[in-house]
Amino acid sequence: MTVTAVIGSQWGDEGKGKAVDFLAEQMDYVARFNGGNNAGHTVINEYGTFKIHLVPSGIFAQNTIGLIGGGVVIDPQVLLEEIDMLNKAGISVDGRLWVSPRSHLIMPYHKVLDGLYEEAKGAGATGTTRRGIGPVFADKVSYNGIRWTDFTGDMFEQRLKVQLQLKNKIIVALDGEALNYDDVRDTYRGYYAQVKPYIKELFSLVQDGLQAGKNFLLEQAMGTFLDTDWGTYPFVTASTTIPSAASAGLGIPPRHITNVIGVTKAYTTRVGAGPLPTEIYDYESEVYKKFGEVAATTGRIRRVGWLDLEIVRTAVQLSGVTELCLTKLDVLSGLSELKVCTGYKLNGNAVRYADVDAYDLGRVETVYETIPGWSEDISKARAFSDLPANAQSYVHMIEAAAGVPVKWIGVGPEREATIRR
Ligand code: GDP
Ligand code: IMO
Ligand code: MG
Description:
By secondary structure, the chain is of the alpha/beta class. It folds into three domains: about 5-100 and about 200-260, Adenylosuccinate Synthetase, Chain A, domain 1 (3-Layer(aba) Sandwich); about 110-195, Adenylosuccinate Synthetase, subunit A, domain 2, CATH 1.10.300; about 260-420, Adenylosuccinate Synthetase, Chain A, domain 3 (Alpha-Beta Complex). The chain is built from twelve helices and 19 strands. α2 runs parallel beside α6, α3 packs across α4 (about 135-140) and α3 packs parallel to α5. The longest helix has 19 residues, at about 155-175. The two termini are about 20 Å apart. The protein binds guanosine-5'-diphosphate (GDP), 6-O-phosphoryl inosine monophosphate and magnesium ion (MG).
């Protein structure tokens, strides 16, 4: 039995979707345990190109069973569209995708409130995906949430009535438009009718799987530094993103997690507000243009920076990472020099990530090492020895800082563009 968690070691979008897709072949279960459809995981394989928000990215491996744990928050419309998209691409999920009845639903008022809170904060806004994530998790922990299990009787109607009374008052006070009870009820009853065949309590399934020695792949959403507790609060997301979240979010005891794969981009990106110590502000530079990306969920432009080894090192320690999957090494090709952040200083003193809050992290002095780059196109490399010496040195430098091996190296977005060591 193996229970492998795949986590992002930076601020999300490290390439977790691709990693989960190529690792899924060996797995019996692939599962999401945190976050919601704020996640956007890109998978490129023989079926096409997909941006996946809720269904585990390992679903393309035909022998896997996909699980969406109770720790995941779900916008039902997004889930249904995704199931439809997969069916149309020839990936049937019927009978092999199960959604926990414990998972909370993103309601229309969560999305409205997410937007209104962001507007009210002005320049201090978090830069959320506006998918209702903060408000739905706030309702979850303040006992105001609505779960799939509420639809089996009339608990849904009872709870919705109360919530709309509360939420409409806030929405109207913030100059928003009140939501209509009948409309929301009918829409969500309609969603429930369609999602019902996929809803199943996961407890026995997971426990029996562990007992039978099955292989589980746990796909984290977001990244380590968007974690509510350990991220750059308040510029974080509303769910726990470190592997221990799989325990509450799926029902897997922590002692069963055997491996933690830290997916690490060869440089750094961030979407939304908050500190990014190695950020590159020269928007005309070659490196800025190379690193630039468009966000999979919102279509926003991702902020970019050099690789930050203090961030990777902290993620490895915090999440118990056992091996790294380095992604997008191919993107560095053609840069004559590479800068790598090896640590921070604040007021002249060396500090670690955990010593400072988000505001101080925004003003630390980054200590860089400049190393030679490589000019060769490496996208066809499939063995470590195919890489130019300077690219190999870059990998070795990451391993030395992280203290764990780099087992996979991404040299392109497609499944097969991967070096396995
Ligand atoms: P996730 O949220 O962690 O799954 O990552 P995203 O899918 O949001 O963003 C990662 C982006 O990098 C996507 O566009 C992927 O297709 C792409 N990608 C992943 N690995 C590689 C790689 O090794 N090389 C290149 N060039 N692109 C990659
Ligand atoms: P994946 O799984 C990158 C960021 C948002 C914002 C903050 C809070 O694709 O790596 P939220 O909507 O969660 O309340 O927004 O978190 N964020 C992500 N950034 N990748 C993600 O997911 C993200 N999910 C949320 O940009 O800064
Ligand atoms: Mg993403």
